[in-house]
Write a structure and sequence with these properties.
mainly alpha; 88% helix; 0% strand
Length: 147
């Protein structure tokens, strides 16, 4: 059936060619140009539609990726905040430990100093006459010396 249509068009073109009418050739060339323009416009529309479809899909992919990146950024931010909090807690604990050690050392130093001062005070409270007995040698006839 397709061959018969093609054969009819070819025979019609042969008939027109043999008649030699120039107006027909001009009309035929305009018709051919018009068909080519219509084909070009249709092709362009198809290409544009494909491009728009691809652009839409690409845009959706970018939006999906952007949403994923935002979600990951929030997760990382939460993790960073958690790590910072832990670091601050550890630092605070260390500072408290150092402070406690310093307080203990200071307390021990103060107690030791207080004991020394008390001991000195205790020896200085002893009356001078007994102090002299403490410093005398036993052969000098002190209180402990035998007659």
């Amino acid at each position: 059936m397709d061959k018969s249509i093609v054969n009819e068009v070819v025979s019609a073109l042969d008939a027109v060619k043999s008649s030699g009418q120039p107006g027909f050739w001009i009309l035929l060339s305009i018709l051919i140009v018009l068909v080519l323009v219509i084909a070009a416009v249709m092709y362009q529309r198809i290409v544009i539609k494909r491009f728009q479809t691809a652009s839409k899909a690409t845009q959706e992919n970018f939006e999906t990726l952007a949403a994923d990146l935002r979600k990951r950024a929030l997760e990382v931010k939460k993790q960073d905040e958690g790590l910072r909090k832990r670091e601050l807690d550890v630092k605070e604990r260390k500072q408290q430990q150092v402070l406690k050690r310093s307080q203990r050392a200071l307390k021990g130093s103060v107690s030791h100093t207080m004991l020394r001062l008390d001991f000195k005070g205790m020896t200085s409270v002893v009356p001078d006459s007994s102090k002299a007995d403490l410093y005398r040698k036993p052969d000098e006839g002190g209180a402990d010396a035998a007659p």
